[in-house]
Amino acid sequence: MRTLFKGGSVVSGSGVRRLDLLTEGEKVAALGRNLKEEADRVVDVSGCFLFPGFIDAHTHFDLEVAGTVTADDFASGSRAALRGGTTTVIDFACPDRGESLHSGLARWHGKAEGKTFCDYGFHMTIDDWNESVRNELPDMFARGISSFKMYMTYPAMMLGDRDLYWALKELKRLGGICGVHCENAGVIDGMIAEKKAAGALSPASHPATRPPWLEAEAVARLLRIAQTADCPVVIVHLTNGEALREVQRARRRGQTIYVETCPQYLLLDESLYNSEAFSDAARYVCAPPLREKGEQDVLWKALRQGGIQTVSTDHCSFTLEQKAMGRADFTKIPGGLPGVETRGELLWSYGVARRKISAAQMCRLLSENPARLYGLFPRKGTLQPGGDADIVVYDPSGSRIIRGEDSVSAAGYSPYEGFATSGVIRQVWLRGCLSVEDGTVLEQPPHGRYLVRGKCSL
Ligand code: MN
User: What is the mean pLDDT of the chain?
Assistant: First the structure.
């Protein structure tokens, strides 16, 4: 099947060009002005922008947290992803401590295989460091996993400084890249204990016990550990200017540091935790927490200037009923927000349409950079002959109001309830197959494919 997209503007990381685009089967076949090639069907995309399918390199589908499991599994989560123009997710395989990486990976394949609607890969979580984990690492690369995740907080998963150091040293040797959740564990634990002793158990205590400087401290410490191990790292879900300044300092001394932020830190702020009704505050509980409004400008500026390389979502969805597990104790609120469904329209509406970033920058943040960083380029992340025909048709003339009740995600609410979009996603194509039309995910069997990823090329 040959499909010709006529009259649109093709977006890449370096700019926007008026080009027709021809796909053949699952691949992009040609681009050019006024393509005359014969096609089986012609799609009129005049006035629309064609983006390479978005990549969300930070999702948690079908994950057990705090005695419950995320509202979205790989089926609903990947349908929500497609709805939002995300044709590839990279989720986190999380072996339990003491479980082998191979066993954890097999479990995650079991969760995803045969029920995922978009393409997918896995990062591997390292929550333990010992000889057997070290011995398993080379085979992870052979199985298509080139990126890893480590935590500096959460007792069940965190690594101490020594193990962070040894793990990074080994990843340096193997050519891997690692994302790290940076928050100071000990002081946060202490502050939580103080809140509990004082009976301050409402969601407002959540941001109070995880201040931005304890994120910045962990970033600074991680970057010194990475300096010692001589290994590049990714700071995931960075939220604030203090933390960003630590990154800039490390870059000035020559380190390679990649930074990810998320829409919730660009668009929502910590005043939401002060809502009178429990569920209105609890729905925003995530870690790191939302920050002061002023931080948003800092993050947008860093997106514009290239200091932040990717915007992913940390999609980790729970229903309001699940959030109510923490009604009497904020530490029992399952942490995380839905986001995989709205990232593209939000970045366009509140970034590109408001001239905070360009369309090309949006393409780098959502498609090109994550593809390079996580070893998918140029199969993904760019519309070039030979690459996968993952295409988002963005119509800047449309508009919609984001409503939880309209969502594909099983969370049942959206953190962006009532947000108006500038433009809408008109169509989403996954490897040449029309998957979303006018906001509706088309009924199809799941045909998402597991992606064997190579090494970082960013
Ligand atoms: Mn996460």
Answer: 97
